[in-house]
Fold this protein.
Amino acid sequence: MAIAMIGTWRMAYEGLEKGLEAMKKGQSSGDAVETAITTVEDYPYFKSVGYGGLPNANGLVEMDAAFMDGDTFAVGAVAGISDVKNPVSVARKLSHDHFNSFLVGTGASEYAALNGFERKSMLTERAQKIWAKRKREIETKGLSPYDGHDTVGMVSLDQQGSMSVGTSTSGLFMKKPGRTGDSALVGDGYYCDSEIGGAAATGLGEDIMKGCLCYEIVRLMGTGLSPQAACDQAVYPFVEKLKKRYGKAGEFSLIALNKAGEWGVATNVEFTFAVGDETHPAKVMMANPGENGTTTIEPITQAWMDAYAKRIKAPID
């Protein structure tokens, strides 16, 4: 059985490399997802996930995360959790519980503490500076408070044919306290069935959750569509329907992987993602919306990678 993995955004790359190596050594798809996402959560320069994530309007880093086992449909999720080092690990543990498997706010944070998960202030000095700068800009320039909402999502397939999916995010920058997007909601931000495949989403959660798109992509793959065809067919018509009936649509980017290790992507913005399998090392690709409800995908350049590394570490004025 082939192994394969796909993750959202350039930030998934290093974690995805580790996840693939874990599965090559015989570890499970669930282990690979957790390894990959905790790598992203721990890196302080990714400002929309974990440590270094941008805070809410009150200056608190509130995080959402989820995990789903494609063999059993077991789901665990947390929303509005704070001061916990790796929310996705808490979500995975919760997936083993039949009751109380989705916890929010102080309940999620207390559960993490009682179960031995590492407590940590997730607000870095850099993130606090970005928050303070945005507060000034809101007051002096009238800028929108909302900027940035990228979720890391990972879908994996292991040597036994088992599949898993996980998500993690600090959510919308400057969000109202208690706000939750799609990332913790099963069917919206993620879904997985080992007999078919899995999907994960990133973008504006308030709009993504209107379409249950991850479930729809997996359902379409179950009818025989390839992951790419399923992504295209689920995402682009819904974006147009949302524009027509709701009046607007935020950013949508979705990834999918099927039980054969084939992958697909659909997006209405410029979107990077990482992908790899047992014969192809992890690489970063760029997707853009194409013509007639299709997606164009191409490799990114080393120059792009270098510029990205420089940009995310640039000094904060």
